[in-house]
Fold each of these.
Amino acid sequence: MRSIRMLTRLLLPAMLAGLTGCAALPDMSPYTDATLQLRSTVVAGGHAVQAGLESAAASYEAGDPAARQIREQAAQFNQAWRARIDGADALLAYTEAVTDLARSGTQGDASARKLADALGGLATGVGVVLPAAGTVATITDVAAFVYGHIAAARAAKSLDQALHAAQPAVDRLATVLSQDLQASLDILHAARRLQATAMALKFNEETAYLKTLARERKAIYGKDTQTPADEQRLRQIGELLDATRSWREPMEQAQADTEAQYRLRIQLIHATQAAVAEWAAAHRSLAAAVRENRSVNVEALVQATQEAKELVRRLRTL
Amino acid sequence: MSEWDSIEGFQEWSDKLGELLGEARDAARNPDADARFAISDRLTAFILNSRPNNEAIKALDDIAARASQDLMLGVLDERLMEIVGRTAEWLQVAKQFSEQAASAGAQASAIRLEKAHRVAQSLTESVHRLQELRSSLVDTDDPEFARSVTKAVETLQKLRAQIERIT
């Protein structure tokens, strides 16, 4: 019996390689992980735009028509962005399905054994007298081994068809998402400027006071010679500027925080754009790799999504 | 020296605002948002730099603020409409991916011989029930029924052999 098994192991691989074309299936898990991350980034990108609009609205006095209009736009954006999240969910479901398809090709041996067990149970049930246990094991081994190769070939063919059939949708999604992200960038830029205008009006008196003092100090510094009166005035200006610290520093801190949040949101959208482009390119590479029976490197995609992930983490901590 | 340093008095500030509003009108017609962002920045800079901060100058600041807001609210509206306009396409793409996912899932299931496995399990269960039924029949029961049960078990046996062959 051992010699039959040995012979099977020696002869069948060559025969099956000829029949199935040595199907090699790529490890799709990094691609699935990257797609999951891309989905999170799409969600976070939507939140970032929403937060940018809400910050802009909050800069206005309550009841200001501009604030109401911005809030309405934020609600409209939120509703429209849900379709993007649904799209990203469908994309993830697709990626998981093709990953599972690739995995099914590597599990042919186990699938055949599972079925053999079930059929063995059925045979006992209907009263079929099975051959001796050793013979059954050998038959199962051979069947599982053969089916392992058949499954790999079938999965490679199905995966090839699935990846190529999906490529137009992948390209379309990448284009549409990229356009949406570009529009989102403009929304964030506009929201930031609305905020800046509102803040300029809100702190108009304070800013004017600071600028007046700064201008006077600059004029004194610009003189060829300074009189004792000039020196006295410079000291006074210094004291006046010090006295503004209690309200100036919180105001400047708030402005710096707002600017930092804006920069981070912009960075996140840019990172998402890069990740989407890498994702579509990686899909194309995977499709080609499966067709040409070679390995594929999705490191650029993994790196792009990692960068986006880090930005999402930083945004959450703000 | 910035563009604001040499401006003095209400008239000069008013003239400067007139110049900026003219540029804002041109930018509003430009589909590229960057031109509008640039003029919005200058209108805000006008608010921050105009002086002295008396009522007349503040009135100019309010005009500058409104112009900047109108430009930016216009950008928001345009971009939002673009996004909303693409929503139908998203729904279509999502549907395509869902279909692709279902198709790939079905193929994976077929490769795993899941259907055949389920059929085998279901048949095994049926056989056990039939065997139980056959053994519970006594001689006094309908012999025709007993023969039908035996035939059913034989049919299942044939079916099993066929499953083995097709998979």
Amino acid sequence: MVATVIGVTRDWDLAEECAQDAFVKALEHWGREGVPRNPGAWLTTTARNRAIDQLRRAAAGATKEREATEGTLAAMEQAEPTSPIDGAPIGDDRLRLMYTCCHPALSVEAQVALTLRTLAGLTTGEIARAFLVPEAAMAQRLVRAKRKIREAGIPYRVPPSDALAERTSAVLGVLYLLFNEGYSASSGALVRHDLCDEAIRLGRLLVQLTNGEREAVGLLSLMLLQHSRRATRLDAAGALVLLEDQDRTAWDRFAIAEGLGLVQSFPAREPAGPYELQAAIAACHAGARTAEATDWPRIAGLYGELARVVPSPVVELNRAVAVAMADGPAVGLRLVERLQETGALAGYHLLPATRADLLRRLDRREEAAEAYREALALAPTPAERDFLTARLDQSLAG
Amino acid sequence: MRYIMLICNDEVAWEKTPDDVKAANSAEYETFMGEMGGRNVLQGGERLRPVADATTVRVRDGKVVTVDGPFAETKEQIGGYFVVDCKDLDEAIEIAGKIPGARDGSIEVRPIWEM
């Protein structure tokens, strides 16, 4: 409902205010006359009318404000009555909102904060806690973002077809960022898991509103499949558990079923986008009853395709890992060493960590230990450092 | 909505470009202005002399202080501008993307503060 009113007022605070008023009126009115047949519609119309009212009053007032609000009023009066009574484009408004929140003229952190505030309905405090930022700072971020939208003239709309693919990609990027914030949290604090839930919920909404746009479906299935493993990624002490060591019986069967169902709906022959490919890879893991049953050659092939679509040394590294599982550590090691020579992954801890693991599997302990030390120096989180230290100790022992 | 588009390029690098490239660049600006004139979005614009020809004026403690050069040393310098009146930021971005200077430099798109 807020989305619809924002559409007409282009002023977010006013929209929220009017939505509040509408709720209060609803309590009064419905108490007396009963709940209307289409309560959502009633609320939206009431809020919209109140907004028009407020704008009229503002227009009658200060001259500075006059031009801006009169322009908005004119636009509103001209706009098709999004009469919710008939069966609202309330959905369309949420889609417009999603694209507006994720406009590239806003900083990425503003995009994420705005998406959570307006589409997921999180409070400023909740968002602040999720990103470990003081609440006042998060409030400021939101204020600035809304101001930028208004003052810089960021349009409230779904982008035209020539810009749609690129802008959808931006929206998906924000959702995935959101998901990863929750997914990679080392604590297991409830508010972080909620981020994953929100990202998935918004992902579902985007799929619904875009009528199953491929990459949106790809992202949703990827998130569901990764989310299915949330109970097993860390052990009781908060240490990382490798995929191969996770207790697959504790994976979320429902998330897997939904994720796999979506993956199976991917069109077979046309070229796949990056999220679809990553989802297909996640599906290989999710569908394997045991780690030994994993279809590594298929995963290696998918990473190969992904590398063509998203040429990136990180993707190449992941491919090397899959190749090592499919064809043996020696083959994988050659790929990793070639990657190292390019220098593209200098400073990235997973490069020496992968080399170390392959050397370990080839029983080249001293070289493995040296590589683990290299990785340790670069590792960014305590959980990863603990894991690498344990491996280093193992390679030095005996 | 009105925006100013500040065309920022590396002057030093520009000085080194060959004359035929400079001439082609000028022609591209002519084309750009023609197209935007046709779309009725251009309200003005000028090319600026290099920052070596700039003078910065400040008044401090009632005294006018004059200094040779731009107000700040920057890696890219403002070489020109356009004032554009268009529908919204998306259109402004599309227009800015067509400015020849966008290919090597940066175009800052700033909304004009309407009084």
